[in-house]
Amino acid sequence: MKKVLITGITGQDGAYLAQYLLSKGYKIYGTFRRISTPNFWRLQSLGIYSKINLIPADLLDMGSMLEAVRVSDPDEVYNMAASSYVSTSFEQAIGNSEITGLAVTKFLEALRVLRVDAKFYQASSSEMYGNNGCTIQDEQTPFYPSSPYAAAKLYAHGIVNVYKNSYNMFAVAGILFNHESPLRGMEFVSRKISNGVAEIAMGLKDELVLGNLYAKRDWGYAAEYMEAVHLMLQQDKPEDYVISTGEAHSVLDFVKLAFDIVGLTWKKYVKINKRFFRPFEVDYLCGNNKKAKRKLGWEPKIKFEKLVKLMVNEDMNRWKMFVEGKTFPWDAPLYPSEAKLITRSSEENINSKIKKLKNRQTQRMVKNGPSIKYK
Ligand code: NAP
Ligand code: F7E
User: Fold this and answer.
1) Helices 251-261 + 189-201 axis angle, to 10
2) How far, in Å, from the CA of 34 to the mean position of ligand 2?
3) Whole-prediction pTM value?
4) Which residues have a catalytic role annotated?
């Protein structure tokens, strides 16, 4: 059975990727950060929470990442973790550079030092193109990052290429354009709109406050993008790929369609507030996915209209359930049993260490504890 290590398994992509790889028969190890309130709601919603081997680890803590790599001993590694919200990266530029950028070098070092011969995937982003003025972006288009997040992603993109060429690693970067779903975080504009529209349609709210309605993005469906990500690691050669739909739509297009779906007029409810504008906006992104089509045989099936419908309908259902008194999965935060976690002292971890220890006495000591008996 192939083993896989996914960082950021609690996020949108980590959860969909885990679901897809489970269907392919992989054993899944996923890292998550210990926080005061657990956030396994995506894994719960997909019904896969109990199938994931959870490893507490933080990208900022290299020791924990080394342990995660060692104990999972993976065939494939998917680095999905990042501080992914562009707006916040302007406010927390240093933290973002460390998590989204520098941590990738630490992770690659962990693989190199431990001599783990795993294939490595890095979640690169179309944000790296920034305001480069091109009408369509592909693998050869120059980058012009326009946020601390994009600059950190570009650094990570570069270092993956350096490790690939310096140490003969199978390391690839997927340049993914915006991909959304009902599992998308509420702060991203797609989900903010689908959720806001559903609340308005249910009579729970009477306005939706947004920023720049004229920015254009190439929006696809997250679950099917994860299939492309998996395909990238199944190729003979490590190469980078653009994953996109090839269509650009404005935030306003998204708003109009979402309100149309519930039979309301957007102008009555949408307000603009400058606080949602960015210091440096990316006006337009549209990806050319020809290489992915040709080499991976991958093509998006869910484009803009289907995506907006899917998201609005899901949020409508969720709010209807709420009004009927049924809870959302994330209303009951799930504290994982300590026994489920793979830590330095958990059985699975100790057993994997024992195999590597040559000295029998040391083996016995690690297994049974020190020979000194305490009264
Ligand atoms: P997401 O929902 O925000 O998930 C990010 C994940 O990273 C979460 O599991 C988060 O954990 C984890 N994380 C954040 N900081 C961490 C740290 N210091 N240590 C360990 N884990 C940490 O993002 P997503 O949409 O799934 O995106 C997945 C990846 O693709 C990200 O790298 C993102 O930048 C990149 N990307 C996304 C898109 C897109 O449109 N979705 C497009 C291009 C590239 P918590 O749950 O604890 O916060
Ligand atoms: O903004 C505009 C905003 O935050 C999209 C991340 O996954 O995709 C995502 O980054 C556009 C921007 O996503 C609001 O100004 C207007 O032009 O949904 P977003 P993003 O910044 O494109 C890339 C590929 C990633 O890699 C990132 O990790 O919508 N916009 N009004 C707004 N955006 C937000 N969030 N909220 C508003 O009220």
Assistant:
1) 30
2) 26
3) 0.93
4) 125, 127, 149
Tens digits of residue pLDDT in 185-198: 999 999 999 999 99
| Residues shown for the chain | 375
Six-digit token pair at 182? Answer: 């009902």
Nearest to 97 by CA among 150, 170, 138: 150
Look at residue 5 and give its three-state secondary structure.
strand
Ligand nearest to the CA of 278: 2
CA distance 308 to 191: 9
Ligand 1, pocket-test mutation among 39, 42, 84, most atoms within 8 A of CB: 84
Helix, strand, or coil here: 125?
strand
Reported as a single tens digit per residue, the pLDDT across 81-98 is 999 999 999 999 999 999
CATH 3.30.420.10 at 3-331, yes or no = no
Ligand 2 cavity residues, CB under 6 Å: 84, 86-87, 125-127, 177-178, 187-190, 192, 210-212, 215, 217, 251, 276, 278, 281-282
What burial letters (b/e) apply to 226-257, b meaning 16+ CB within 10 Å?
Answer: bbbbbbbbeeeebebbbbbbbbbbbbbbbbbb
* pLDDT: which is higher, 36 or 356: 36
Average pLDDT over residues 346-373: 57
pLDDT surpassing 50 at residue 370: no
Q: How confident is the model at residue 105 (pLDDT cuts 50, 70, 90)?
A: very high
b/e map 34-65, b = 16+ CB within 10 Å: eeeeeebbbbbbbebbeebbbbbbbbeeeebb
